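Box 3.1 A note on notation
Throughout this textbook, protein chains are presented in two layers. The first layer is the amino acid sequence; the second is a token string describing backbone geometry. Keep the layers aligned when reading.
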Amino acid sequence: MILLIFPFQAELDAFLGGAGSGTSGVARTETKVRGQRVFQVESEPDWRLAVCGQGKVEAALACQILTDALDPRALMLLGSATALDPALRVGDIVLADPGIEWDFDADKPPEFRPRRPFPEPRCVLTGPILSGDKDVFDPALKAELRERYGAKALAWEGAGFHRSLRRSGKTGWEVRVITEEAGEGRLSLAQLKERMAMDFPALRPVVRAALL
């Protein structure tokens, strides 16, 4: 069984939905596991899906609770990200290798590498993803972060997810869909949801590849 963690509900809904499918998307059932909502879909019996909430702390707590309760074979953190690399386009899928923790203003920030390589690397781009503690919408600041860290993209939750993997000894991967390009500013919520609805279903074959 693989545990799929999403920072917020709209990302999980987009993953199971998709353009033209409305809000229902793939039928799901819901149970509570130690206070966490866990979803299943009949067509993918090896999947368990949950929303951790935004930020590193929420990601670490949810991953640890559900890992202890469900003992998954592997975990994946799936979510949106802003591009730092100007070559990335909306809809690109990026595997974090490494994940870089931006919280600590250190010359050598903590980095996290996957315990084992992704089974099918051809279905994703690979590169550093910065785990920040705030959203970055200013293209000039994105360029500064790209220069300083060499990261392809920025999101929030990665460091908490990777720290949980390290402590539990589990295999897992952080995979992000680019929803804002490096030269773009802040999107409206409607724009963000529209892009997620278009591009998040492409993560489903990536998850299947992880089970190979």
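The first strand starts at residue 2 and ends at 6. Strands lie at 2-6, 29-33, 36-41, 44-51, 74-83, 93-101, 111-112, 125-131, 153-155, 171-180.
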